[in-house]
Design brief:
Layout (H helix, E strand, L loop, with lengths): L17 H13 L14 H13 L3 E5 L2 H11 L7 E5 L5 H8 L3 E5 L9 H11 L3 E5 L8 H11 L2 E5 L7 E2 L2 E2 L6 E5 L12 E5 L2 H10 L15 H7 L12 H12 L1 H19 L6 E2 L6 E2 L4 E5 L5 H13 L5 E2 L24 H9 E5 L6 H18 L1
Parallel strand pairs: 2-3, 2-4, 4-5, 5-8
Antiparallel strand pairs: 1-9, 6-7, 6-11, 8-9, 10-12, 12-14, 13-14
Helix pairs in contact: 1-9, 2-9, 3-4, 3-7, 10-13, 11-13
Bound molecules: pyridoxal-5'-phosphate.
The site of pyridoxal-5'-phosphate has 15 residues, from α3 and α4.
C-alpha cells in the first residue's frame, strides 16, 4: 500500500443540478433578479426560500442575506450591540466571526476550546463573570456541537443572548433540536464550501419578532418589509423602522432559485457526507499518535469535514506529515500552523483584538488537523485517503 497516491480534488463540489440550473435560467429570463422586483401577487424566489428555510428549521422568521458573515454582523446589530461592548466568542473559529464583532466596533473576548473541539463551558462561565458580556457569538466550528442544553443553561442563567454561527452545522441537530434553534438568532452560510451552494449567501433565523424586524430593516428592505412573508407583522416594524439603519446585504432571486432546489435534498446530502465521514473515521481509528474527535451521542452532525489531533507533536514533525500527505495527494490543513496558510482559525491570528492568553487551548489549537470531505469523493476515495494518512502518521512514528 505504501506509495499509493490519491487523485481527487479536495475543493471540488458537486455541480449545480439541471433542475436548479433551469430555475436560475427562468429567473434570468424574467429579468427580475432583485428580491423586491416581483409581479403583483408573486412572492418571488427569495421570500419563498425564506419560508422554506424557516419551515426546515422550525423558526418563526427567516431572512436570506448576501453572506454568512453578513448574517453574523446583522445579528449583532439586531441585538443592538454597541461599540466597545464585549462579545464572547470561540478561540477556535473562522475569521468572519471575530470580524463580524469587530465590524460593529465591539470587542471579541475569546473563550477556550476543549479537546472535543467545542467551547470550554468552564472558561465560558469565567469569562461571563469577568467581562459581564451580554452576548455570546457561538461558533459551531467544523460542525462540532457543544452540549447545547448545558450551554443554554449557563447563558440563560447569566442573561447572555446567544447568536449561533451555523456555517458548518446547517442540517445538524443536538438532541433533536436543529442547530441554530437554541440561541435567539441562528446564522448560516450558503457559500460554496458549506452545505448548500450559491457561491455567496446566508440566512438569519429567529423567533424574536423585534430582532427579525430589525434584521429585515438592516438588510436593506427600505419600506418594502411587507414583502417579507417569512417576517413579522407590519406593526412590529412600526416601532423600529425609522431608527434602524440600512446596511444593505440582500439575497437575490438568482441565488435563491438554486438554493430552493438544493434545500429539498439537504437531508439526503447530509447522509452522504456522514457515510464518507464514517469511512475516514473508521480508517483512522486506532492510529497511534493520532487522536480522533469522539462525537457525543446527542449530536447529529454533518460530516462535511473531519478533524483529528496530533497532540504534542513538534511543529517540524507536523509540517513533515502535511508535506508527505500532500505528496500523495491528500490535502491536510494544519489549523495550528504558526503562520496561517490560506485562512485563519485561531485567536492569535486576529491582531486587531486585545491580546489574550489561553494556554490550555493553545495545546489543542496547535494540534488540530482538518480535512474536507466533498461529496465528489466516493466511499472508496475516502478509504484511500484514510489509508494514506494512517500510513504517514505511523511512518512519522
Ligand atoms: C464560512 C464561515 C462563515 C461565514 O460565511 P461567509 O458566507 O463566507 O461569509 C462564518 N463562520 C464560519 C465558521 C465559517 O466557516
Amino acid at each position: 500500500m505504501t506509495g499509493e497516491v490519491f487523485k481527487g480534488n479536495f475543493t471540488q463540489q458537486e455541480p449545480i443540478t439541471e433542475e436548479a440550473i433551469e430555475a436560475a435560467v427562468a429567473v434570468m429570463r424574467s429579468g427580475r433578479l432583485h428580491r423586491y422586483n416581483t409581479l403583483p401577487g408573486e412572492k418571488g424566489e427569495v421570500a419563498l426560500l425564506e419560508e422554506e428555510f424557516a419551515a426546515y428549521t422550525g423558526a418563526k422568521y427567516c431572512l436570506a442575506v448576501a453572506s454568512g458573515g453578513y448574517a453574523l454582523g446583522c445579528a449583532l446589530r439586531a441585538l443592538e450591540v454597541k461599540p466597545g461592548e464585549s462579545v464572547l466568542t470561540n478561540a477556535f473559529t473562522l475569521a468572519p466571526v471575530p470580524g463580524a464583532i469587530a465590524s460593529v466596533g465591539a470587542k471579541p473576548v475569546f473563550v477556550g476550546v476543549t479537546e472535543g473541539l467545542v467551547i470550554d463551558l468552564d472558561d465560558l462561565q469565567v469569562k461571563i463573570s469577568e467581562t459581564g458580556a451580554k452576548v455570546l457569538m457561538l461558533s459551531h466550528m467544523r460542525g462540532h456541537l457543544v452540549d447545547m442544553d448545558a450551554l443554554m443553561y449557563i447563558c440563560n442563567g447569566a442573561g447572555v443572548a446567544v447568536i449561533e454561527d451555523c456555517a458548518h452545522t446547517m442540517g445538524a441537530h443536538w438532541n433533536g433540536v436543529p442547530s441554530g434553534r437554541h440561541g435567539v438568532i441562528g446564522c448560516y452560510s450558503t457559500q460554496t464550501y458549506k452545505h448548500i451552494n450559491s457561491g455567496e449567501g446566508g440566512f438569519l433565523i429567529t423567533d424574536d419578532e423585534e430582532s427579525a424586524a430589525r434584521a429585515i430593516m438592516l438588510s436593506g428592505s427600505y419600506m418594502l418589509y411587507g414583502k417579507h412573508t417569512a417576517g413579522p407583522a407590519p406593526d412590529v416594524f412600526e416601532k423600529i423602522k425609522y431608527e434602524t439603519p440600512n446596511v444593505s446585504g440582500r439575497m437575490d432571486h438568482l441565488r435563491a432559485a438554486i438554493l430552493r432546489v438544493q434545500l429539498r435534498s439537504l437531508d439526503v446530502q447530509v447522509e452522504k457526507w456522514n457515510a464518507r465521514y464514517r469511512v475516514v473515521e473508521a480508517g483512522l481509528r486506532g492510529t497511534k499518535g493520532l487522536t480522533l474527535i469522539e462525537r457525543p451521542e446527542p449530536e447529529h452532525y454533518v460530516g462535511s469535514s473531519i478533524q483529528f489531533l496530533l497532540l504534542d507533536w513538534p511543529d517540524a514533525k507536523i509540517e513533515a506529515l502535511v508535506a508527505a500527505c500532500l505528496k500523495r495527494g491528500v490535502e491536510l490543513k494544519w489549523f495550528g500552523a504558526p503562520e496561517p496558510v490560506a485562512f485563519t482559525s485561531r485567536y492569535e491570528s486576529w491582531r486587531y483584538c486585545e491580546v489574550q492568553s489561553l494556554p490550555e487551548s493553545d495545546r489543542v489549537l496547535r494540534a488540530i488537523m482538518d480535512m474536507r470531505l466533498p461529496l465528489t469523493f466516493s466511499l472508496e476515495d475516502c478509504e484511500i485517503v484514510s489509508r494514506i494518512i494512517r500510513d504517514e502518521v505511523l511512518r512519522a512514528g
